[in-house]
Amino acid sequence: MLKIWGRINSTNVKKVVWAAEELGLPYERIDAGRQFGVVNTPEYRALNPNGLVPTIDDDGFVLWESNAILRYLASKAGAESLYPSALHPRAEVERWLDWQTTALQTAVGPALHGLIRTPEAERNLQAIEAARQKTETLLPILEARLSESPYLVGEQFTLADLAVGCTVHLWFNLPLPRVPHPALEAWYAGLRARPASREALALPLS
């Protein structure tokens, strides 16, 4: 059985759990990271020398890096709808996966740490506001795309929606003022309605 190490309140772990649910893969998730520890043990570091989550073990094949795991699971399952083989749509999926990691999650992350994982008396309000403003500069990119099509890569839900959706879930549930983005909000509501997203898009954040 597929084993997934990582706490479900990690955005990167959410992506992998959601993908497994979409693909109908049986799996065991093992709490690891932050309050659960595990990641600094010699046994875990032998699997993932970075000491981060998620890590998977698929019948002896060990892999870390969440978006690499998404690609692997979808490819193994032959999930053409989630990870198309045609050159152009696959390139679009890859583009959004990279953007989620390097741009959107990087922008939102300081707000999560400041508002959810830092005691109120110790919060850096300037850093939180900077994160909010940076995120608001990126969301019009999503709004424009989702005003043209129901999903990020056209008519079909793909790994792109799954990965970006986990970060958007974080954004929409932080106690921050937000600029309205109707197409983005409708898309997010649709993601939350997917049965496979139930665990990944659970609340509250922590």
Automatic annotation (TrEMBL):
InterPro entries to which the protein is assigned, alphabetical: Glutathione-S-Trfase_C-like (IPR010987), Glutathione-S-Trfase_C_sf (IPR036282), Glutathione_S-Trfase (IPR040079), Glutathione_S-Trfase_N (IPR004045), Thioredoxin-like_sf (IPR036249)
Pfam family, one: GST_N_2
Gene3D superfamilies on file: 1.20.1050.10, Glutaredoxin (3.40.30.10)
GST C-terminal domain location: 86-206
Domain GST N-terminal, residue spans: 1-81
Coiled-coil stretches noted in the UniProt entry, renumbered to this chain: none
Superkingdom classification of source: Bacteria
PANTHER family membership: DISULFIDE-BOND OXIDOREDUCTASE YFCG (PTHR44051:SF19), GLUTATHIONE S-TRANSFERASE-RELATED (PTHR44051)
Protein name per Swiss-Prot or TrEMBL: Glutathione S-transferase family protein
Lineage of origin: Bacteria, Pseudomonadati, Pseudomonadota, Betaproteobacteria, Neisseriales
